[in-house]
Design brief:
270 residues, single chain, elongated, L-fuculose-1-phosphate Aldolase, 2 domains
Length: 270
Amino acid sequence: MKSILENRSNLAREVNKVAEVAGYLWQKGWAERNGGNITINITQYVDEAIRKLPAICGVNPIGATLPNLKGCYFYCKGTNRRMRDLARAPMENGSVIRICDDCASYEIIADRHVMPTSELPSHLSVHNYLIGKGSTYKASVHTHPIELVAMTHCNDFLKKDVLTKLLWSMIPETKAFCPRGLGIVPYMLPSSVELANATIKAIDDDYDVVMWEKHGVFAVGEDVIEAFDMVDTLNKSAQIYMDARCMGFVPDGMSDAQMQEISDVFHLPK
């Protein structure tokens, strides 16, 4: 079977980025079994030949009407597929879908009949919001970073921007590379509409990375590498904090003046 990626270098590059990140997530222990999901908007890389491809299977409901997604195409990790397998063979463990004209359903068009992640409605709802906002973000990543998830088991860290300030203070790069900090969403049922709506609200409050209490993170970015890098940087700060505590002391962290200096030098948002 000819792959949709054949002779389409730009599209292949974006899908290969997903495979690269999937490998990182597995290696870090952030993607146990089939945990985690990645969805990228690939509409800009779709040519006329792809648009004419027939559906591999029937029409599938999204579970929501998302008007900004009309005419859009997405690459999605498959449901019950493992990140370690997606890293090795992305088109065998993911699928390309086309949003139907009703904006409430989709068709799988490549490469196999691999059903998208069960969290597809949540991911697509976020992409619908991003397009409506005029954002250039094309990627969404959900994963389970061990140290960040552990910190959400402490109520003190769930207060607004407490974790943001703490993590920023652990190492200068965190504020430089994650200038919007870390949004917090209280525990909600995974894959639920309520969780999707709360995540969109947090992104609307100007966060690029949102922490789901006792579950994982959801990050958005220009591409999947950027989204991963933000999570990786935040989790490094969480590791530094925990290592200091294991050594028997509470880390001082950078001072407010030192963090303000980072903001000034890197021209970061206030």
